[in-house]
Design a protein that fits this description.
By secondary structure, the chain is an alpha/beta fold. The protein has helices at residues 46-57, 69-77, 121-149, 170-190, 208-212, 214-221, 228-233, 245-255, and strands at 37-41, 61-66, 82-85, 103-106, 152-157, 195-202, 267-270.
């Protein structure tokens, strides 16, 4: 005959399917963003377009922002989202963008490849405005709404260059390293109020931004353009392929979903092993 229970008060009932014993979400819960509003920058192509489509498909109301009106129109033709044509380097104009957003994806970026001594001063300033000052201002004006709702997700599309440096990319590396620090500060301030902040750090992604820098890379490294992908872009990685935009979007979607509630203040490398060196 089984022995009687002596401490029945401490018995924990079985968790419901898809839930831990504490009722928290687990990895097999679907990402349902119904009722959430997202703002995605640099959304006309590449990573931003993939992220905007993924969030919209998960049920979020998405504001896709870019200066490329034609690219936004093409995006909207295949996805249920709103588009806003804006120059994100125009810092004063950022106040006109929606602020009642629950999800902010800072993705907009440009590149310039040049030795430091030849780096155009105005190009350096532009890159820092677009890729560091703009995310700061967008975060700053979005946080009050997130705090009021007790929930928010800030995902900063950084880069392996937020964790490592490469020659000839002074402005880009500076901006991405700054974005990493900003993300961590926001994580510490926002975490107790239900807002998380993270970075996604891909290596070279198959996007127009990468394609446009091939000529500059060839000139800076003194090699033919046909050799840039193999000898420059894929040289530091163990997985010899470019990252696809949809891969980055899938990670961003996870970071906005139920299984990421305790993921905060960290960076997710998608670099094919670059940072393993």
């Amino acid at each position: 005959m089984p022995a009687p229970r002596t401490d029945a008060s401490t018995e924990v009932p079985d968790a419901a399917p898809g839930r831990s014993r504490a009722g928290s979400p687990v990895a097999n819960d679907p990402v349902d963003l119904t009722g959430r509003t997202a703002l995605v920058t640099g959304a006309a192509s590449g990573i931003g377009a993939s992220v905007a489509r993924a969030l919209a498909a998960a049920g979020a109301k998405v504001h896709a922002v870019d200066r490329d009106a034609a690219g936004l129109a093409a995006l909207a033709d295949g996805a249920d989202l709103a588009t806003i044509t804006a120059d994100l380097a125009d810092l004063d104009a950022l106040a006109d963008l929606p602020t009642e957003v629950d999800i902010l994806v800072n993705n907009a970026g440009i590149q310039h490849v040049s030795p430091v001594e030849d780096f155009p001063l105005e190009r350096f300033d532009l890159i820092l405005d677009l890729m560091l000052a703009s995310p700061f201002r967008l975060i700053r004006q979005s946080l009050p709404h997130m705090y009021d709702r007790g929930w928010g997700r800030i995902v900063n599309v950084s880069s392996v260059h937020g964790l490592r440096a490469s020659a000839y990319k002074a402005a880009y590396v500076t901006a991405k390293h700054g974005l990493e620090g900003l993300s961590k500060v926001v994580a510490l301030e926002g975490g107790p109020r239900g807002v998380t902040s993270t970075c996604v750090n891909p290596a070279y992604v198959r996007t127009p931004l990468v394609e446009r820098q091939i000529a500059d890379q060839a000139q800076s490294h003194g090699i033919p353009e046909s050799e840039v992908v193999e000898k420059v872009m894929l040289a530091p990685v163990a997985v010899k392929r470019l990252v696809e935009p949809d891969e980055v979007a899938a990670l961003v979607l996870f970071l906005c979903g139920p299984a990421s509630a305790s993921v905060n203040g960290t960076s997710f490398s998608m670099d094919g092993g670059w940072t393993a060196h």
